[in-house]
Amino acid sequence: MLKRLSCSALLFLSLTGLSFISTAQEIAAGFNLGYATFNMEELKVIQRELSGQYPFDAKVVESFPGYLNFSASVLFMKPTYYYGVSIGHTSTAGRLSYSDYSGSFTSDQIVGIN
Q1: Fewer CB near the terminus (10 Å): N or C of the chain?
Q2: How far is the C-alpha of 113 from the C-alpha of 34, rounded, in Å?
Q3: Is-above-0.85 flag for pTM?
Q4: Which H or E element spans position 11?
């Protein structure tokens, strides 16, 4: 229930955004939060192939799930156009893992998107 509530709150923040517009200076600034999902089929295929190349039975533990994202922007507005800077970031990852009485193995495949 808490997870569903927090996802709903993040979706609301992502849709509405947090913004500030100053009409006197014609400057707009904003900050957005959201939740991104990914269709990483090619990376999932590579991950499965990678798991079969080890001399032990490594299992796929995570396979590029959705994750939080954020962005911020500052825009200078003119009557017919605007310019400025917008930055954002999100990430996802995959993980292979194996463990037995002699030790453990973990391989992370991290993808950052800017």
Answers
A1: N
A2: 14
A3: no
A4: helix 2-16
